[in-house]
Each structure stands twice: as structure tokens, then as C-alpha cells.
Records
---
Amino acid sequence: MPLPPSELSRMIKTRPLPGAPVVIEADEVERAALAERFGLGAVRSLRAEVSLEAKPRAIRATGSLRADIMQPCAVSGEDFPVTIEEPIDLRFVEEDARSLPEDEDAEIELEADDCDEIGYAGDMFDLGEAVAQTLGLAIDPYAEGPNADAARKAAGIVREGEQEGPLAAMLAALKKD
């Protein structure tokens, strides 16, 4: 089954590669679609600047991503502003050039660079989708907003190491003696 189209598609021809860095800025429609995809209140801005370099068997993409998002607090659920600044370091490898073992059960030794490898077919690859995935991976799913402690207290949730109530007060008094 084919994948749905990317919300931030930016197709780049493999030959010739752009000489100048590629700047990707998401427009309002793309930002709204990315917010929905990643479960965010909003993506207020998203900009990536990426340099492309031809390598043997691959195209290396390096640069940076900056995004301002409204993320739900993991505790209260309220949206709060978060700025994401993330380096980009990817390798785009043509599907035919990827070396996969013929035996599905065989172990694969991964090099550090292999973990950020993205396959493509034909003479183009989607740099925009790679930027979108970089954003998705940079979002902290357990981020806590400024009202997290108040929400915990209202729900009666006690953090590890914190105690409340009459028993806690008696134990604290005993520790002072």
C-alpha cells in the first residue's frame, strides 16, 4: 500500500544537485497539516536549511531545522510554546544501491551513519518529508508545560520524593529531631 503524500513535500533532483543550501519553509497549510500529523496544537513556524553533497552511493544532507510549536503538556494537556532547534544529518541512498541481506533472519551490523539512511527510487528524493520526520523525532512526547505541577497537585498526584498530607508532616517532623 503506498504511503500518503507528505504534508511538506519538496522533491529534489539527484542530478545536478543544487549548489546553494536548500531552504524549506512550511506555509500555513503545511504547518496546519503537520500539527495534525504530530498531535500538536499548532506549528507556528518551520524552517530548515540543508546543504546537499554527492557521496559515493549516497547524497549527504546536513543542516539545521528550527520550529516554533504549540505542544500539549504531558500532564495537564494544555498547549504551551516550544522552540525546536535540531541538526539535520541524513543520507539519501538509491533503493537499488542499498545493501540488504538476502536472508531476512540475518543480523545486520549498523555503522553510525546507517541509522539516518533514507531510501529513494528514481532520480528524485523528498527532502521535505525528511525535514518533517526530523521535526517529528525532535518533539519530546513527555514535555511538561508551566502548569504541570499545578495539574498534578489538583489531581492528587505526588512526584517521587515528594510527600503531602498529615502522615508526611509527621514523618518530616520526626526527621528534624
---
Amino acid sequence: MLEPWMKLTIDTTLLGLEAQSVIGLRLAQIALGQGTPAEAQLMITEKMLAFMDAATTVATGGSTEALVEGYRRRVQAKARRLRPA
């Protein structure tokens, strides 16, 4: 009975940590002068698209777990894209 709640708690915590790492990577790029206007625009666009996806998931009866998993996939992809080679 407690297992689904624990998994959701852990996944949500990991999402928060992963999101903070992406924020750190983007801030580092900006501080080093490597940030581009396209990247800044992408940040805004990504947030709007993520909100629309979340709203659609909720409106169609999706679960909280599905929302968190979707966000985590997106955040992890951003982290891979932003990490220096």
C-alpha cells in the first residue's frame, strides 16, 4: 500500500534534482557567454509544451506517475543535450 507513494515520492524528488542540474547547466552556459538567444527561447517554449502535455494527461485521466515520468524523460534529455562533450 505504501509502495506506490514511496515510488512517487522518490521519482518526484529525483525530478527536482534533475531539474536543478539543468538549471545549473543553463546558468553556467549563460555565465560563460555560451548561451544563445535560441536556447533562451527554447526554455520558454519547452515550459509551455510541458504544461500543455501535463494538462492533456490530466484531462484524459492520466496518473500523477505518468506526469512525473514524462517530465523526468524531458529533463534528462535536456541534461544530456546541455552537458559539455
